[in-house]
């Protein structure tokens, strides 16, 4: 699948326009933050290329791009932690998206086993697990 | 100011350790998502280099790295929208941080004038402003 999005012609179109014109970085990626649609908790932060964003829009399930594997990645394909997208927002300069998701499977999002990937708080310079 | 952080020796230390060992990308950056400490709303997504992260930890106020200006950037320095950090979390592979912040000034975070940078929803492929 090839996916292409337009480029915003100017900053007004980028910031106030009705056209989805993602500003991909030099690696062809935008940042994607997923929050739990019911609780608001930040679950994970990942990246999308054009193909992942298009697949997410087409299917209503979150797709990302794995920087380590350099491959499209449907969240939950192996873990069952599929993310049903309830709402997708884009930020002012269209280089980040915010997905409100309904996690399927065991309801988690993190490969380590926690509900959210952000299970550690920085306290006095040290990391403390506080899921 | 120069800031350095250790590198995690293995994946267990990275994922379960108590040592803050951010995994900066090829450009020396990690992603940072800021949510409103009171409402949970995602306010913005930006980047931090080591210096920005250290300054944030030292001062309790959010500092980022501007990719467009290639410079350290204290949020709110000109706008007054200083972000008091209530809690700072790091994700499983330590390449992203989540800041819960208390926005000062007019309480907003976005240069366009909205409270959150994510003021547009993607609906049927089009962007709809819904602050």
Automatic annotation (TrEMBL), chains A, B:
GO molecular function: phosphoribosyl-AMP cyclohydrolase activity
Keyword Mitochondrion: no
Cross-referenced SUPFAM superfamilies: HisI-like
Domain Phosphoribosyl-AMP cyclohydrolase residue range list: 44-119
Pathway(s) where this gene product acts: Amino-acid biosynthesis; L-histidine biosynthesis; L-histidine from 5-phospho-alpha-D-ribose 1-diphosphate: step 3/9
This protein's record includes keyword DNA-binding: no
Keyword set, alphabetical order: Amino-acid biosynthesis, Cytoplasm, Histidine biosynthesis, Hydrolase, Magnesium, Metal-binding, Zinc
Residues holding Zn(2+): 92, 110, 117
InterPro entries with a match to the protein in the record: PRA-CH, PRib_AMP_CycHydrolase_dom, PRib_AMP_CycHydrolase_sf
Cofactor note: Binds 1 zinc ion per subunit. Binds 1 Mg(2+) ion per subunit.
Pfam families recorded: PRA-CH
Coarse class of the protein's main subcellular location: cytoplasm
Function: Catalyzes the hydrolysis of the adenine ring of phosphoribosyl-AMP.
Subunit structure: Homodimer.
Membership in a protein family: Belongs to the PRA-CH family.
NCBIfam families, per database record: PRK00051.1
The name this protein goes by in its record: Phosphoribosyl-AMP cyclohydrolase
Lineage: Bacteria, Pseudomonadati, Pseudomonadota, Alphaproteobacteria, Caulobacterales
